[in-house]
Amino acid sequence: MVKRCSVVGCGSSVGLHSFPLDLEIRRQWLRAIGVLENSQLPPGAVVCNQHFTRDSFANMVEFELGYSARLRLKREAVPTVALPRIRCSPPTLLPHHGGLQSEVSKLNKR
């Protein structure tokens, strides 16, 4: 089975990067692509090069000159390019409802 980018609407199968092991950076990736919980991702989920800025890569110059066959992300890189417009956000307190409600569920009630 061919792996594809996990960003909604992308589906690229080229230049794929696995989610980081560092929990904080991983959370940032999940928020960036609009996923609230790790459990929503399939095993082996990946994000492609198209969602990172040039300065996210540790070896961009070497890659462009042909000295490296694959781009390597810096440890702190987070996807910020060509992401879905609707992102999930953490629950917010809505005083007029008297409880917690996520932004996603507010959108669903419209």
Describe this structure in words.
With about 110 residues, this protein is α+β, with helices and mostly antiparallel strands. The protein has one domain. It contains three helices and four strands; from the N terminus they run E-H-E-H-E-E-H. The strands form two sheets. It has a two-stranded antiparallel sheet with strand order 1-2.
The geometry reads as globular
The radius of gyration over CA amounts to: 17 Å
Question: How many distinct domains?
Answer: 1
Structural class based on helices, strands and sheet pairing: alpha+beta
Largest sheet, in brief, is:
2 strands, antiparallel
- End-to-end CA span: 38 Å
How would you describe this structure in keywords?
110 residues, alpha+beta, two-stranded antiparallel sheet
Summarize the structure.
The protein contains 3 helices and 4 strands, in the order E-H-E-H-E-E-H. It has helices at residues 23-33, 60-64, 103-108, and strands spanning 16-18, 46-48, 92-94, 99-101.
List the helices and strands and how they pair.
Layout: E1 16-18, H1 23-33, E2 46-48, H2 60-64, E3 92-94, E4 99-101, H3 103-108
Antiparallel strand pairs: 1-2, 3-4
